[in-house]
Amino acid sequence: MQMSGRNVNVNSVFYAEAYHPVQAGSIDGTDILPHDNAVYRAFLCSSAGLYDPLGDPKLIGDPYCTLFVGHLSHLTTEQSLRKALSKYGRVKDLRLVRHIVTGASRGYAFVEYETEREMQRAYKEAHHSFIDDSEVIVDYNRQQLMPGWIPRRLGGGLGGKKESGQLRFGGRERPFRAPLRSIPYDDLERLGIPPPPEGRYMSRYQVPSPPRRKRSSVDREEGIHKRSMERGANMRKSSPVEKEEMSHKRSMDPEDHSFKRSSVETEHHRNRSSIDRAELSHKRTSRDRDDRSHKRHKSHRHERSTSHDHY
User: Where do the RRM domain residues begin and end (predicted)?
Assistant: First the structure.
């Protein structure tokens, strides 16, 4: 597909959903050769499977609720970091990465929240905020949630400083630019590099969404049941005035009117049926009484005629 400036905005960008070292070293995600030694080292590490993203014994907690915080001040402590990030939600666990020998802060941390929603809020609002006079960046836990991830210490990562010359693209801070030249799809497929998306580009002002947990039907049913239980508890806790207002609203609801009409009609039909049964029973009783009276009268006449014949 030929990409040109006529059909793609030069300010359009896209973000990596899976990690590839060669693609991360490309400004538009179309390179097929490493452009520096670090990318080449990360490519060899990825090809040989030398990095295990789940091999860190310090990895704890739910990755979908965990936030990466970088560019921290070396004066920031666990207490000050927890205090700064608690305004976005309830912090369940926090790990400030420190040097194994000196114990000094490495300038980044992992923060786990109680729920995924709280993590999403911190992901949107805490980015480029200030903690201890240092402008921090936040991202989702790419180590566990991004397929093929290679860390910075092995030549991978995302971002980087211009002075180092080892820029990495595709992340939140430095996304890929929309390619303005033809895309070598065959070469990208041969190397296993994800091709740029077709037509799914964003502006730099849009916030890329982190991966979301795939919810099963059981989880959805549990969520619905939990919400219904919460609504029931709230109804039980509501004051008599609120209950009266709720009943008034239901009485004004046309669906409730139809329900009440149907209930009234059913009751009327039930009463009518009982009246009909009573009338039918009365008619049967009257008819039986008339039959018995007629029989007695007939028998009496027969006896009189018989006695007359006898005398």
Answer: 65-143
Give the residue from 195, 210, 225 where a domain finishes.
Answer: 210
In a shared domain, residues 86 and 199: no
Q: List the domain range (segments joined by +) for residue 17.
A: 10-53+149-210
* DSSP letter assigned to residue 96: E
Q: Which stretches of the chain are assigned E, i.e. beta strand?
A: 13-14, 66-70, 91-98, 105-113, 130-131, 134-135, 137-140, 176-177
Q: What angle do CA 178, 13, 70 make, to 5 degrees?
A: 135
pLDDT (0 to 100) of residue 217:
54
What is the C-alpha to C-alpha distance for residues 94 and 103, in angstroms, rounded to an integer?
A: 16
**Mean local confidence (pLDDT), 187-215:** 89
According to DSSP, the β-strands at 134-135 and 130-131 are: antiparallel
Residue 255 pLDDT > 50, yes or no?
Answer: no
